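Lab notebook, bench 4. The sequencing result for the construct came back, and we need a structural model before the next group meeting so we can plan mutations. Quick request posted to the team channel:

Model the 3D structure of this chain.
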Amino acid sequence: MAYLKGFRLQKKYIAFLTVVPLLTVTALVNVTCPVCEGDGFVTSGWNMEQVRLDDIQSKEEAVLRHACDMFLMYEYTVWLSLSNDASEEAVGWIKMVLVDFTEGRPLATLYVVVEIPGQTTLDIAYNVWFSTALDEELITEVKAEVITGEIEDVTCNGTGRVSLNSLPLINSLESKLKETARVEKPFAPPLIWWDEE
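Done. Here's the predicted structure in token form:
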């Protein structure tokens, strides 16, 4: 016990022994996700049950290397032929997937908004960008499907729960996260820098 007489509990040890267990506990406790309100999904639209994808064609426009060649960005023009068999207008989402057709492996996914009047067939062209770590060109294709249900919430990965320690950040960005999940945003590729010779 004599060796404990010279030991004093310093403030930095108290802070460490308080903060680390507190962060550990809050990382393990899950609460309801404020973006999807616990559903795990965000709204996708209405009347999309009667919409069908008749045809899809795509053309690879460009492949760009970014971030010191760490990933590739694929620009595609995608033509869709969609039909709405219902009498009401349908508003919803089309899921586009960049696929490595040699293995059938999905590489990247994005969603685009579509509005189709009732009893109409529509031909629509989209200019879309996918980013992926795939380092080979010309082995990709785009596949599409009509989303009739809900879109998974990326904030909680569809679970409807988030850790307690991430809740303050999610609450402060809640409106931005909802906007990102529900609204189509045109993609602007990063600036390209060429080395002058």
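The chain is about 20% helix and 45% strand.
Will bring this to the meeting.
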